[in-house]
Specification:
Blueprint: H1 5-13, E1 17-22, E2 25-28, H2 30-47, E3 53-56, E4 60-62, H3 63-69, H4 71-74, E5 81-84, H5 89-100, E6 110-116, H6 124-129, E7 139-148, E8 161-171, H7 173-193, E9 199-202, H8 209-221, E10 225-230, E11 239-248, H9 250-255, E12 266-273, H10 274-285, H11 294-301
Parallel strand pairs: 3-7
Antiparallel strand pairs: 1-2, 4-6, 5-6, 7-8, 8-12, 9-10, 10-11, 11-12
Helix pairs in contact: 2-10
The structure holds adenosine-5'-triphosphate and zinc ion.
Length: 305
């Protein structure tokens, strides 16, 4: 048993998560889902005054857009692609032979135009680029959905399929950085409402390989990423439940997002891990929401869900 198994076992034995046989892939009970929906509603209530444009996408995205965004260059180890059987009957027989023998039948599948969305914000940049020049007030998008990352683990907060609520800001450097700053303050207040101990830390993305280490160091030096961290596993470092990511001109250049003066737009995204916040609540306050502090129940159960 590793250090993380007890937290997962508790959520499974209390019926909040449902085992699937694959690490990091769980069903959610009605109670878990109810709390998660309320956490999502809370983040959106905090954002309500901003008047963000809502976009929702399926949990898959265009492979071409995914490649162009640089994900496969930076995070090949986390990517998930959709492959399908497109062969004839002999190929199907070969597939079934492999399958019946308990072998890997993946060789009989071909890539499709779809990959699994690794973050809620990835389909937003190409969608905004279709709208032409960025208006003077910039763009602000509320986007949420299931994301896939191939990181199987018994650590309850490191799932393979999980949901993110994100707010994406596109505009001048000043607009984007002010938005990120504002959200860092809001996130602390949000954790407070949830009764969760928390801190904000400089962080880095898990870039692949040796070159990735340099990218990660550079990201930290420039403070491009901050995380809202919350203790979930006793004795282990706290878990990132929210992140505040400044991309500079990366997505602006990639997707041709242009400001009215012809310069490249800057972007940032603020993302909350909805399963992580929900798990943190159950770890902190116990498995029965009926027993949670009145103040917390008042905050979550007064929301329109
Ligand atoms: P980590 O450092 O834990 O790997 P990350 O930096 O890769 O996370 P982001 O890409 O910033 O995470 O994703 C936004 C948010 O999505 C994170 O703050 C976290 O709350 C959530 N998240 C990321 N990966 C997972 C996962 N494997 N399972 C559940 N939630 C996740
Ligand atoms: Zn994002």
């Amino acid at each position: 048993m590793d250090a993380f198994t007890p937290a997962l076992d508790l959520l499974l034995s209390d019926g909040l998560l449902i085992e699937s046989g694959v690490n990091g892939l769980y069903g959610r009970s009605g109670v878990f889902e109810d709390v998660l929906q309320r956490v999502e509603a809370l983040t959106r209530t905090v954002a309500a005054q901003d008047g963000a444009m809502v976009m929702r996408f399926p949990p898959g995205m265009s492979r071409a857009a995914f490649e162009r965004s640089g994900y496969i260059k930076n995070f090949p180890h986390l990517a998930g692609v959709v492959r399908c059987f497109c062969g004839d009957e002999p190929a199907h027989r070969a597939l079934m032979r492999s399958c019946d023998a308990g072998e890997d039948w993946g060789a009989e599948l071909a890539s499709t135009d779809v990959v699994l969305a690794p973050a809620a914000c990835y389909p937003v940049y190409p969608a905004l680029a279709q709208r032409g020049v960025v208006p003077d007030q910039g763009w602000l998008v509320d986007v949420a959905g299931y994301c896939f990352r191939h990181e199987p683990s018994r650590e309850v907060t490191r799932m393979q399929w999980f949901r993110m609520q994100e707010f994406v800001r596109v505009g001048t450097e000043a607009q984007v950085l002010a938005f990120r700053q504002e959200w860092m303050a809001r996130a602390g207040a949000l954790a407070q409402v949830l009764g969760l101990p928390h801190e904000l830390e400089v962080a880095n993305d898990p870039f692949f390989g040796r070159a990735g280490k340099l990218q990660a160091d550079g990201q930290r030096e420039k403070a491009l990423k901050f995380e809202l961290v919350i203790p979930v596993n006793p004795g282990a470092p706290p878990t990132a439940c929210g992140s505040f990511n400044y991309h500079g001109e990366h997505f602006g250049r990639t997707w041709g997002l242009q400001l009215a003066d012809g310069s490249t737009a800057h972007t940032c995204c603020v993302g909350f891990g909805l399963e992580r916040l929900t798990v943190a609540l159950f770890r902190q306050h116990g498995s029965w929401p009926g027993h949670w502090p009145d103040e917390l129940r008042g905050a979550l159960w007064s929301l329109p869900c």
